[in-house]
């Protein structure tokens, strides 16, 4: 299992438990689980697209 620790806004959380301002993770980098099976590729693609959308929305709010 791999991936960065993130919160619900796709912000990367450091080892000290604090959010790293302006740093977002999406796709496999933001994943702590892998689903290798029948629906694995579909699940991973869906996660990549959706996490990218959530991160972009969070980044927009961070910049405004």
Question: Would you kindly provide a written description of the structure presented here, covering whatever features stand out?
Answer:
- The protein has a two-stranded antiparallel sheet.
- The protein is built from one helix and two strands, in the order ββα.
- The mean pLDDT is 82.
- The longest helix has 24 residues, at 40-63.
- The protein has 64 residues and is α+β, with helices and mostly antiparallel strands.
- It is flat, with a radius of gyration of 12 Å.
From the structure above, extract its key features:
64 residues; flat; 2 strands; two-stranded antiparallel sheet; alpha+beta
Return the structural class: alpha+beta
Number of E-state strands? 2
Order of strands across the main sheet: 1-2
Number of helices: 1
Helix content bin: 25-40%
How can the largest sheet be summarized? 2 strands, antiparallel
Q: pLDDT average, as an integer?
A: 82
Which residues sit in consecutive blocks of at least 5 with pLDDT less than 50? none
The Cα radius of gyration reads 12 Å
